UniProtKB/TrEMBL annotation:
One of its GO terms (molecular function) is peptidyl-prolyl cis-trans isomerase activity. Keywords: Chaperone, Isomerase, Periplasm, Repeat, Rotamase, Signal. It is found in: Periplasm. Its main location: periplasm. The keyword Nucleus does not apply. Residues 169-271, 283-382 form the PpiC domain. It comes from the Bacteria. The keyword Signal applies. The gene is surA. Residues 1-20 form the signal peptide. It catalyses: [protein]-peptidylproline (omega=180) = [protein]-peptidylproline (omega=0). This is Chaperone SurA.
Length: 446
């Protein structure tokens, strides 16, 4: 969440929320997205703020029509994700939005009122800001739900990742440029995409543009405006098709064009570093069981709390906790075990849950409390000191593999959602064909 809060101010600039306020007559519809719209004022505001971020580096930005199309596509994707989240029952309360805004203000060492004043000075209304935060939280939860249902990591995959880590101990900072191809691309579309990626590679080889600037100008990837930066990754976070290539590259080197499921790519190894090896790590673990009553489209927060209060009263009255968990808990991973979560560090399931468990004595039962998942009742059953060095390594490997799988599956999900959507660009510049973003005859020189 810290990273989310640090980045969310920039994400505000790309909010696709249609404001409830009265639209001025000069405002128009820039893009129709299924049953919603993106207003020209939203698109102009987002483009303007991207330009502000590149103050002093305007030459790195693509031509105005291409920049507008890139930003419009981001807004389209955000609107589609928000719509999908709402359609599948994902909800964010006003209180949760307020907490997120307070967190953002704290990250910027400001009060909420100071943040409000800064937004006004930057030309962004507080209502627009609130709506953008709500949208980002909705998308975040949609992604979390997607990960829980679509991504799994086997013990064999963890074993292989740890073996590879011990062999190399390296992490890689990567960046990429994508020339996207539609599903079922025609031979002509493939040829055009190949010509474009070869042109970009030629520009890089001749030193006419650095990789980050080329990504901003020519890449079709959602992270194009960040210079195509993919961040630091271990080998188990890199698709197998690329891992062997990356292992043999020197920092600064760029691959030849690679054909992947989403189109043609160029991959750059920015730098490497030693991942390090974890040693013994002794931590305090607790063991606990819980009963979860979810808040969703079928159960309101008030109804979930009332059910949790009733179950708590029964436990206080002598009912068996495990039996009630098996009968009523809505956590599929622990329900069959009577709510038993096994041994874990208090912060493993998030700060709200961890604070409640830490405050309990062994054998004690909490009063009902709320987290993002719903209403919980927790019974703490034990405490121990444990060396979790190897366990932590396995957990980290499982997390990084899951992150890599999630990225692949999520990007495919976004491509499919975008392909199925009705999107009509009404603004003149945003209708520019993507093929026009290709460098002009780069392979021939001047």
């Amino acid at each position: 969440m810290k990273k989310f809060f640090a980045c969310v101010l920039a994400a505000t600039l790309l909010s696709a929320t249609v404001q409830a306020q009265q639209v001025q007559p000069i405002d128009g519809i820039a893009v129709v997205v299924d049953e919603g719209v993106i207003l020209q004022s939203e698109l102009d505001r987002a483009v303007g703020n991207i330009r502000a971020q590149y103050a002093g580096r305007a030459a790195q930005l693509p031509p105005p029509d291409v920049l507008e199309r890139q930003v419009a596509e981001r807004l389209v994707l955000l609107k589609l994700q928000v719509a999908r989240a709402e359609a599948t029952g994902v909800r964010v309360s006003d209180q949760e939005v307020d907490q997120a805004i307070a967190g953002i203000a704290g990250q910027n060492r400001a009060s909420v009122e100071q943040l409000r004043a800064q937004l006004a000075a930057d030309g962004t209304s507080f209502d627009q800001f609130r709506d953008s935060i709500r949208d980002e939280l909705l998308v975040q939860r949609l992604r979390q739900r997607f990960a829980q249902t679509q991504v799994s990591v086997s013990d064999a995959e963890v074993d292989a990742a740890l073996e590879a880590q011990q062999a190399t101990g390296q992490q890689y900072h990567l960046a990429h440029i994508l020339v996207a191809l539609p599903e079922g691309a025609t031979p002509e579309q493939i040829a055009t995409g190949e010509e474009k990626i070869l042109g970009i590679k030629s520009l890089l080889d001749r030193g006419e543009m650095d990789f980050a600037a080329a990504a901003v100008r020519y890449s079709d990837s959602p992270n194009a405006l960040e210079g195509g930066d993919l961040g630091w990754r271990g080998e188990n976070e890199i698709p197998a098709a690329f891992a062997n290539l990356v292992r043999q590259m020197a920092p600064g080197q760029v691959t030849a064009p690679i054909r992947g499921p989403s189109g043609f790519q160029l991959l750059q190894l920015v730098e490497t570093r030693d991942a390090g090896q974890g040693g013994p790590s002794v931590v305090t673990q607790v063991r606990a069981s819980h009963i979860l009553i979810r808040v969703d489209e079928n159960t309101s927060a008030a109804e979930a709390k009332a059910q949790a209060d009733t179950l708590h009263a029964r436990i206080v009255g002598g009912a068996d906790f495990a039996a009630l968990a098996r009968e009523h808990s809505e956590d599929p991973s622990s329900q069959a075990a009577g709510g038993d979560l096994g041994w874990f560090t208090p912060d493993q399931f998030g700060p709200d849950f961890g604070a409640q468990v830490s405050a309990l004595a062994d054998s004690a039962v909490s009063t009902p409390f709320r987290t993002q998942a719903g209403w919980h009742i927790v019974q703490r059953t034990g405490t121990r000191e444990a060396d979790v060095g190897n366990e932590n390594q396995r957990a980290q490997a499982r997390e990084t593999i899951g992150r890599r799988k999630l990225e692949e599956e999520w990007n495919q999900f976004l491509r499919e959602m975008r392909g199925e959507a009705f999107v009509d660009f009404r603004t003149g510049n945003a209708t520019a064909d993507a093929a026009e973003t290709a460098p002009e005859a780069p392979a021939t020189g001047d």
